[in-house]
Amino acid sequence: METGWQAAGDLETTMIPSLAEATIRSFLDGAIGNAGWASLLAAVVHVALVAGFFGVPAGIFIWAERKISARIQDRLGPTRVGGRFGWLQAPADGLKLLQKEDLAPKAADQILFPMAPYIVVVSSLAAFMFLPFSDGWIAVSLDIGLYLMLAVMSLEVIGVILAGYSSGSKWALFGAMREAAQMVSYEIPMAICVVIPVVAAGSLNLNEIGALQGGWLGNWLIFHDPFTFATFFVYFVCATASCKRAPFDLAEAESELVAGFLTEYSGFRWSFFFLAEYASMFAVCGIATLLFLGGWHTGIPGLDESVQGLRGSSASWPLSWLANVLGFGVFFVKSSLLVCVQIWVRWTLPRLRIDQVMMTCLKYLVPISCTLFLGAVIWPLVLSATTGKTTLLGEPLGERAAPALEIQADTTMTGREGDLP
Amino acid sequence: MSNQPLFWIFALLTCGGAVGVVISQNIVRMAFSLIVSLGSTAGLFFLLEADFVGATQLLVYVGGTLVLLIFGVMLTASGPFQQIRVSPGETFLGAAVGLLLLSVIAFTVIDVEWDTLNAARTEASPGAESGNTARAIGLRLVGIPADHEIGVHEGRGGRTGYLLPFEIVSIHLLVVLVGAAYLARAKRRVADGSTGGEN
What we know:
The complex is a heterodimer of chains A (421) and B (199). Chain A is mostly helical and 421 residues long. Chain A has one domain (103-413). Chain A has helices spanning 2-8, 20-32, 35-72, 89-99, 112-127, 145-153, 156-166, 170-201, 206-211, 226-242, 254-257, 267-291, 303-311, 317-346, 354-386, 401-411. The relative contact order of chain A is 0.12. Chain B has 199 residues and is an all-alpha fold. Among the domains of chain B are: 1-80, NADH-ubiquinone/plastoquinone oxidoreductase chain 6, subunit NuoJ (Four Helix Bundle (Hemerythrin (Met), subunit A), Up-down Bundle), CATH 1.20.120; 127-185, no CATH class. Chain B is built from seven helices and no strands. Chain B has helices at 4-23, 27-47, 51-76, 88-111, 114-124, 134-141, 163-195. The longest helix of chain B is centred in the last third of the chain and has 33 residues, at 163-195. Chain B is globular and about 55 Å long. The termini of chain B are far apart. In chain B, 21% of the residues are buried. Chains A and B meet through helix 1, helix 3, helix 6, helix 7 and helix 8 of A and helix 2, helix 3 and helix 6 of B.
């Protein structure tokens, strides 16, 4: 899908000139000389890269979860597998799960039961196509990247419901129903929270939102106004719940429901659900990093400008590539810290009851997010009426979206007077 | 065109999913076939560079409507893995209606002169093939044509674009939801009263 996307379009008309895909494709085009094979190869490279970004952080976080939970509970955690700190614990877990027998209950639906883990994994993996890891390091750069990413991630719930239903077990069905109710409910405040920084930035393009937060710490959208600051925390709570993490892990409430919708799964299919869970944690934390915490920018004044200067068109490719590697490192560290906070919360707070989970969402988080949204919309109007400019600190970041609007208006201005409403 | 194979994959999946909905007897498997069909339709939209429509297809139909559908099926089913049985008369009626609809669509597709239409389309909006349709759609929604600069047509007399109808439809949907919630609650209270239990 990725190659078809750009193949028909003209590269000049896309918003980001330095797409990683375009670079790979033009390089292969020159090396092979056949456009069709080049775009196919570029697609393979991209799928491999996205799958790597999907799988490797998930493995790291599984290890981190074991270590952090152990430390919180005054244990040591894995110490021997692969050296001093149990580095190879996640691959060892994977190997163990691969060897397990792939069981399916007799009462299970024989088509849907094996299919359900793939739906969850695919929807989680597809979300990574729209996540920029550094400036221009994005598989599919779209004007509506954030919208599409949330749309794709919301498909995960279908896999969960099908898993619970097709298992032919009461535990699994109860777990799946709770899970589905929780995920569908928490999507509402999460979507409203996501819109608030979008309003501040004036764009749904994740790469653009990340790029305009450069400069210094005050340009991060979390410090844009008091409402975006509060929104970050509401978003983080909703994101934790939508990843079915504790204290919202009702579906897997071991003491009540055995293991929820996972009860009947074993071996590699079971591990697919967990891989998807950890990858989703990274994805929602990546969204939080991009929308609120400055994306791939360090936030140190001066450093960001010089790194951004390396990315300019005048620089040679190793330097701009190096700048992007640095940006990727910054992005990964920020997102990983957020994931560690999720792990920390999981091993600290007790689990909520199902009615408390739903009440937290519908009675508190939805009204809070709506109020924050209203406040974030009114804030620039009040500021411009009283102080004459739309932000308290520095220049308004949204201005970077405004010229893009004019460019778009110019390119499409060709004889469409006839169909005006 | 380099995405011709992709088109065939998505087209086959769309049709295969639709056939699966008709053939299958198990309701949840039907829902799954519908997911495949609607999801592949979203893929076809992406191939046509209509990214906003494709994303909305995924969010609304695959993510929203189908989840509701599965919920409905699961909550109303009396036994596990509910089956649907149709009588021969129903099969005949359904097939007749389906064939009529298919012939209407087929005749329309044959009648349209696609070459001249495509030429006119590319002439009218050369930027349409680059995707990124969201901005134009959004501007149209609030009544600003995408090919005009903002502020030029200030005095056009209360033109609201599609925003007002959209809002009216949304309020209607909200009313329906509130009504459904009210009806569901009222029924449960009556049932509780008759059994004499509480909660």
